[in-house]
Amino acid sequence: MKNTFTLLTFFLFLGFSSEISAQNWVTIAEKTVSFKAEKDVVTPRGDAKSVDKIRIKCVQGTVKLKKVYVEMSDGTKKEYDAKAVGVLTKGMTSLAWDLPGKSGSAKIKKIELQYDSVGNMLLTDKAKVEVQGRTSK
Description:
disordered N terminus, four-stranded antiparallel sheet, 48% strand, 137 residues
Protein backbone atom coordinates (compact mmCIF):
# COMPACT_ATOMS: atom_id res chain seq x y z
CA MET A 1 0.00 0.00 0.00
CA LYS A 2 2.82 2.39 0.89
CA ASN A 3 4.58 1.76 -2.46
CA THR A 4 1.34 2.44 -4.34
CA PHE A 5 0.89 5.75 -2.51
CA THR A 6 4.50 6.77 -3.21
CA LEU A 7 4.17 5.86 -6.90
CA LEU A 8 0.87 7.75 -7.19
CA THR A 9 2.42 10.82 -5.52
CA PHE A 10 5.36 10.67 -7.93
CA PHE A 11 3.12 10.57 -11.03
CA LEU A 12 0.93 13.40 -9.73
CA PHE A 13 4.04 15.52 -9.10
CA LEU A 14 5.50 14.63 -12.50
CA GLY A 15 2.28 15.58 -14.29
CA PHE A 16 1.92 18.80 -12.31
CA SER A 17 5.54 19.91 -12.80
CA SER A 18 5.47 19.27 -16.56
CA GLU A 19 2.26 21.33 -16.77
CA ILE A 20 3.95 24.23 -14.97
CA SER A 21 6.98 24.18 -17.28
CA ALA A 22 4.72 24.00 -20.35
CA GLN A 23 2.91 27.15 -19.25
CA ASN A 24 6.01 29.29 -19.82
CA TRP A 25 5.85 28.77 -23.60
CA VAL A 26 3.30 30.78 -25.60
CA THR A 27 2.55 30.76 -29.32
CA ILE A 28 3.62 34.13 -30.72
CA ALA A 29 3.19 33.40 -34.46
CA GLU A 30 1.93 30.68 -36.83
CA LYS A 31 2.71 29.83 -40.43
CA THR A 32 1.62 27.26 -43.04
CA VAL A 33 4.52 25.98 -45.16
CA SER A 34 4.22 25.29 -48.92
CA PHE A 35 5.70 22.21 -50.61
CA LYS A 36 8.88 23.98 -51.70
CA ALA A 37 11.92 25.72 -50.26
CA GLU A 38 10.50 28.75 -48.55
CA LYS A 39 11.39 31.88 -46.64
CA ASP A 40 8.71 33.57 -44.55
CA VAL A 41 8.71 36.61 -42.32
CA VAL A 42 6.39 36.55 -39.32
CA THR A 43 5.55 39.30 -36.88
CA PRO A 44 4.76 38.27 -33.30
CA ARG A 45 1.27 39.01 -32.02
CA GLY A 46 0.57 41.89 -29.64
CA ASP A 47 2.12 41.73 -26.20
CA ALA A 48 3.56 38.25 -26.86
CA LYS A 49 6.65 40.02 -28.23
CA SER A 50 8.28 40.14 -24.76
CA VAL A 51 10.05 36.81 -24.53
CA ASP A 52 13.62 35.75 -23.74
CA LYS A 53 13.81 32.56 -25.85
CA ILE A 54 12.11 31.20 -28.95
CA ARG A 55 11.62 27.77 -30.48
CA ILE A 56 9.80 26.35 -33.50
CA LYS A 57 7.08 23.71 -33.08
CA CYS A 58 5.67 21.61 -35.92
CA VAL A 59 1.92 21.21 -35.39
CA GLN A 60 1.09 19.48 -38.70
CA GLY A 61 3.03 17.70 -41.42
CA THR A 62 6.83 17.61 -41.65
CA VAL A 63 9.24 20.50 -42.02
CA LYS A 64 13.01 20.77 -42.40
CA LEU A 65 14.38 23.92 -40.75
CA LYS A 66 17.37 25.68 -42.30
CA LYS A 67 17.81 29.08 -40.64
CA VAL A 68 16.00 31.40 -38.27
CA TYR A 69 16.68 35.17 -38.19
CA VAL A 70 15.41 37.41 -35.42
CA GLU A 71 15.32 41.21 -35.44
CA MET A 72 14.63 43.04 -32.19
CA SER A 73 12.99 46.45 -31.69
CA ASP A 74 16.36 47.94 -30.65
CA GLY A 75 17.90 46.95 -34.02
CA THR A 76 19.90 43.95 -32.84
CA LYS A 77 19.75 40.93 -35.14
CA LYS A 78 20.75 37.32 -34.78
CA GLU A 79 20.88 34.35 -37.12
CA TYR A 80 20.43 30.82 -35.83
CA ASP A 81 21.61 27.83 -37.85
CA ALA A 82 18.73 25.41 -37.56
CA LYS A 83 20.18 22.66 -39.77
CA ALA A 84 21.31 20.73 -36.69
CA VAL A 85 17.66 20.54 -35.62
CA GLY A 86 16.94 18.43 -38.69
CA VAL A 87 13.45 17.43 -39.65
CA LEU A 88 10.52 18.20 -37.36
CA THR A 89 7.33 16.16 -37.51
CA LYS A 90 4.00 16.81 -35.82
CA GLY A 91 4.48 17.57 -32.12
CA MET A 92 8.26 18.06 -32.25
CA THR A 93 10.01 21.31 -31.26
CA SER A 94 13.40 22.76 -32.09
CA LEU A 95 15.97 23.71 -29.53
CA ALA A 96 15.28 26.92 -27.63
CA TRP A 97 17.38 29.90 -28.78
CA ASP A 98 18.30 32.87 -26.59
CA LEU A 99 17.21 36.18 -28.09
CA PRO A 100 19.75 38.94 -28.75
CA GLY A 101 19.93 42.10 -26.66
CA LYS A 102 19.38 42.63 -22.99
CA SER A 103 16.64 40.46 -21.56
CA GLY A 104 13.37 42.34 -21.15
CA SER A 105 14.50 45.62 -22.73
CA ALA A 106 13.86 44.86 -26.42
CA LYS A 107 10.91 43.15 -28.05
CA ILE A 108 10.84 40.95 -31.15
CA LYS A 109 10.21 43.04 -34.25
CA LYS A 110 10.17 40.19 -36.80
CA ILE A 111 11.27 36.60 -37.31
CA GLU A 112 12.38 35.17 -40.66
CA LEU A 113 12.14 31.42 -41.16
CA GLN A 114 13.89 29.41 -43.88
CA TYR A 115 12.62 25.86 -44.31
CA ASP A 116 11.45 23.10 -46.63
CA SER A 117 8.15 21.30 -46.27
CA VAL A 118 8.69 17.57 -46.65
CA GLY A 119 6.10 15.45 -48.41
CA ASN A 120 3.97 15.19 -51.51
CA MET A 121 1.24 17.73 -52.13
CA LEU A 122 -1.17 15.02 -53.30
CA LEU A 123 -0.64 12.68 -50.33
CA THR A 124 0.25 14.78 -47.29
CA ASP A 125 -1.01 17.92 -45.59
CA LYS A 126 1.00 21.11 -45.73
CA ALA A 127 3.22 21.62 -42.72
CA LYS A 128 2.14 24.13 -40.09
CA VAL A 129 4.59 25.60 -37.59
CA GLU A 130 4.26 27.75 -34.51
CA VAL A 131 6.90 30.14 -33.26
CA GLN A 132 6.79 29.83 -29.50
CA GLY A 133 8.31 32.22 -27.01
CA ARG A 134 9.25 31.64 -23.41
CA THR A 135 7.87 34.41 -21.28
CA SER A 136 10.46 36.11 -19.15
CA LYS A 137 8.13 36.34 -16.13
